[in-house]
Amino acid sequence: MNIGVMALSLTGLVVFRYIYIRYNKNIWTYFSGGPYGDAATYFFLIQFFRKHNCGVSDERCLLSNEPVLVPSIYMKIVGKLFSDNTLLKRSWLPNFFLYVLASLFFLLMLIIHGDINKWLMAFMVIFFVIQPDNISLDKHRVHYTVLQPRYFGLLLNSVFWFLYVSYGITVWSFVLMVLLAFLSLNTSIFCRQMTFFSIVLASILLLDGLLFLILPVSALMSAILFPKEFIPSIKPQIQYSYQYYLNYYKPKPSRNLLIHFLKNIISRPVYESYPYFASILMTCLLSYILFNIPKNNNAEYQLLRRLSFTYLSVIIIFIITGIRRYAFLGECWRYISYSFYFLTPFFLPLLINQLPIPEMVKEGLILMLILAAIAIASFAHKEKLGNKTPALIDLLNNGPESFRKSVWYGVPYRVSTTAVALGYGTKTFEYQYGNHSNEIHNTYFASYPYLKWNKTILSDNNVTHVLVENELLSKAQEISNFSTKELKLIITNSEFSIYEIL
How far apart are CA 270 and CA 469, in angstroms? Predict the structure, then answer.
């Protein structure tokens, strides 16, 4: 692949991506509505990091007065490059630019490995385009496109493992991998977990001390460059993990050991792994190849060894975190997602091409994998992606001017975060980010994400208005004894209602 072909290919990948988002009605309706769900929370956070660093409190947050202590690189970069108005109207834009960089990296790797024949290179590009994290924009993978750092973390870790597998530890690769690990450690809580666990386990299985050394070096860089963020945020992260362990993904009790084994240990990783069938197949294929080629120190064997144990390390972590008791360490499928984004589409066609089978069979296998990936993506898009932000904005715009001075109680609690981010209100029941301790959880929540409903919480925080997502009203009444009896309905639409506290 020469430079001209690469430029044409990059243009094709970017145009395809835009068309895929813009002209898929389900996806475009979701994206054009503005930040929603987790993306709305990151919109709120990005506003904070435009003016502040970690170590101070966000005055808009009512859940504790602790300082904000959360990895912030993504929020700071996006906040510098994009205005609120752009992020509100085109919340998909920052991660779209990241996709352009990802495509450029993948094509550059194909150029560097110029001895790959053209048909195989074409299959590799197709694999890259149609992998689940690019086109299966269901409720899980849509987060890679909207306004939040997941896709940035995916790219950092995926480039890290691609460089390690392809080149091992050299002076230049060590420096680049330290930089990538440093960025990952300061991007999100999950990125930290992903970088830490994958490097530790892979370095043990591979007996590679230099790989392990990347962790303390990148951690030292983080402590020096972000002294008010990196080390101070470790304790809150542990507290957050602990309260997540206590309150979410608890194993569902069962007297039958077999049912317990199937429900709480096997079912989740099996169910969550099906979009990544190509990476699972890759692990099996690597096991077969590694144990059936001569063991020596040549470059090909060492590459296969690094590739095999990298996959094995991540699959082990995937299986462990698939057990409900350990799900507080992160959604299990994301460990696969964050590691193999470049490795699987690049190396799987190459490995199939090396199998001692006829050319026609090789091409048939690769074609079947492509068709299976497309089928899975089509299945994922049967799920309706709803975005209620436009209905909320419409309600707020039609309300009284007094909303701009409101202190909000939300049902569920985060529904009012968007209102404050848009300037409708001064405070809301939101965490000081990074400080999700179990004490705060028990003090304020009846059951996440529903706050306790009592006069003490309302009066102590000077709450003036209540914002309710209509379809969750009955659930809030059941869980937290929420009541509208002492509230005055101000304005309502099909999705939301706003009440004033009498």
Answer: 34
Where in the chain are the domains? 117-380, 389-501
CA pair distance 171, 176, nearest whole angstrom? 9
pTM beyond cutoff 0.90 = yes
The secondary structure element, H or E, covering residue 495 is none
Collect all residues with Cβ–Cβ distance below 8 Å to 371 and sequence separation of at least 6.
none
448 alpha carbon, distance to own chain's centre = 20
| Residue 138 burial (C-beta neighbours within 10 Å; 0-12, 13-18, 19+) | middle
Angle at the Cα of 229 (from 327 to 184), degrees rounded to 5? 55
State the DSSP code for 54: T
Which residue in the block uniquely carries the two structure tokens 């402590």?
Answer: 223
25, burial (CB in 10 Å: exposed 0-12, middle 13-18, buried 19+): exposed
Read off the pLDDT of each residue in 272-297 and give the average, rounded to a whole number. 84
Q: For residues 395 and 415, what is the distance between their CA atoms, to the nearest angstrom? A: 13
Where helices occur in 56-117 by DSSP H, the ranges are: 73-81, 84-89, 93-112
- The count of C-alpha atoms lying within 13 angstroms of the C-alpha of 386, restricted to the half-sphere facing its C-beta, is 4
* Predicted confidence band of residue 288 (pLDDT cuts 50, 70, 90): confident
